Amino acid sequence: MSDTSHGPERRRGASRHRWILGGAAGLLAGAAAVAVSEALAALLTGVTSPLLAVGNRAVDATPRPLKEFAIRTFGENDKPVLIGGVIVTVALLAVVAGAVGVRRPRVALGAFLVLSVVALVAALTDRSATASPLLCLLPALALMAVGAVALLLLLRALRAPARTAVTSRPSGPTGTAVAEHAPTGRAGSAAPSSPSAPDTVSSPGPVHQVETVEDGKPRILVRDLLPAHVEGDDLPTAFDRRKFLAAAAAVGAVAVAGGAVRQTFGGSAAAGERADITLPKPGAPTPALASGTSLDVPGITPYLTPNKDFYRVDTALSVPDVPIDGYTLRIHGMVDKEIELTYEDLLARRMIEKRITLTCVSNPVGGKYAGNATWLGVPIRDLLEEAGVQDGADAVKSTSADNMTIGTPLGALNDPERDAILAVAMNGEPLPLAHGFPVRMVVPGLYGYVSATKWVVDIEVTRFADFKAYWSTRGYSVKAPIKTAARIDVPKSFAQVRTGDKVPVAGVAWSQDRGIRSVEVRVDGGAWEQATLADQDNIDTWRQWVWMWEPQAGTHQLEVRATDDTGYTQTDKRVPIAPNGSTGWHSVNVTAG
């Protein structure tokens, strides 16, 4: 007697197996589509890949509180996290589309096309792209075409029925005849049950076995081991594995080839040029750093920040590749004479060198988004004087190579005491790519979002009333001088210190364009104690400070505040980053024992 109880179970198992393969097919098709689009973007100048275009749109559309949360939570890793999120989202959607497409290929294709349209819109509206709209669309169109073709190819292979064979053979000592429809083997031919198996004929359908038993009475056993179709659907349970594997191999090869092209041609042209640059000598070199400007306290922030440790906060998901070959800086707007300068023109002009501390408006109380470096560059006021600023102008709108716009008060750029520069070097070497190579703005005393344009290619003299810069349309103030602040570097919060020791409490304080007059520390809300300041290099850099503490046993709160050279002492009132920088005293909790 035949056991037919495994039929539904086999069908369910086959269905689950097909869903898994469908998800894998969707993922593979998505990988091929993304790889080809990335390769094409790498081959075209001024074109953003669909992944980056979607990410850029996400950055631009992110509400300010969410942006601040991302910086606060992920720090300078916010960009890799966002790109990773886009990739994971695309991968998950591709898996779902493939799994659904096993039974509903039109739905899967429709979902894939919707995703492609999102990529097309993002590419067409991407502010960082500089090529023509048609060129900008090509990678997204390639993503759509490759993805659709690959997905349909794989789904078609999954839906193709396996070939079966009709076999007749004798069945043992009684001379019984057996006729059966059997599934073909891996090569598509029937697997013989005996060395003398006869010829086979392709035939889809369920497996039947007809046999006679010893009593001579014929009996038909319909085992239904491998039904050709799932009940209620036109999907074959057995599919042609060879056809699917061949399709998967072809799509995988496309993905690998696209990745190889992206890896080969996606490098930075600017990186190679940067290595060959010989920097000019400044006409006004900065004085040598006096020994008293740096304190010998373990754990304190170094007076000069190495380039590799300098903070980076910007909206560029991918660092713009701006070769010096073909680079031009345009100065125009409310000027008597428009100026265009090449990189070589800038290097040939009068250079000054100065140590300047930069601070990001996203820096929370006690945060790390501040850094001090030696900058070499052309005084901006020299260029503005040469261009001839017209009456009524009060602002400069600067634009980066990726079309970020920043508005800066004209007075700050023309101030002879401030030394705003177009920097070409940082700490004795050409600007790092991530910090604005080949040219960036550096303006002492102003938060970066209103002054520190990286990869700058355009300077327009204008009026604040006539334009809105990127961040001023997102809830930030039009003007933003850096606020006086102090930070405790050591001991760290929740540190353990020993009673009976003299514990150094140390850190940095800054008030660019004004200078630091004093720093005070207090313990557990007690009296303020004067800290010892390092020598002041110039008013545009931070100052290190230290206060020696003899702790008593227990848990204590240490607080710090600074007073600038105007006599202003920073407030204890905590305000958020927006609209123009946080305020409040930095504090740490430590335990002495």
Pick out its properties.
593 residues; alpha+beta; Molybdopterin-dependent oxidoreductase; Sulfite Oxidase, Chain A, domain 2; TAT_signal; molybdopterin cofactor binding; 4 domains; single chain; 5-stranded antiparallel β-sheet; sulfite oxidase activity; 24 strands; 5-stranded mixed β-sheet
Structure description:
This protein is an alpha+beta fold. The chain folds into 4 domains: 11-160 and 241-265, no CATH class; 164-222, no CATH class; 291-473, Sulfite Oxidase, Chain A, domain 2, CATH 3.90.420.10; 485-592, Immunoglobulin-like. Helices cover 31% and strands 23% of the residues. The protein is built from 11 helices and 24 strands. It has helices at residues 6-43, 50-61, 64-74, 78-101, 105-125, 133-159, 241-265, 269-274, 343-347, 380-387, 410-414; strands spanning 164-170, 177-183, 201-202, 208-212, 218-222, 328-333, 339-342, 352-359, 370-379, 395-400, 405-409, 421-426, 429-430, 440-442, 456-462, 485-490, 496-497, 503-510, 516-523, 529-530, 532-533, 543-549, 554-564, 586-592. The strands form 5 sheets. A 5-stranded antiparallel sheet has the order 3-1-2-4-5, with no helix packed on it. A 5-stranded mixed sheet has the order 7-6-15-10-11. Strand 10 (395-400) and strand 11 (405-409) form a beta hairpin. Helix 2 packs across helix 5 (105-125) and helix 6 runs antiparallel to helix 7 (241-265). The radius of gyration is 35 Å and the shape is globular. Residues 182-204 have a biased composition (Low complexity). Keywords: Membrane, Transmembrane, Transmembrane helix. Residues 318-471 form the Oxidoreductase molybdopterin-binding domain. Pfam families: Oxidored_molyb.
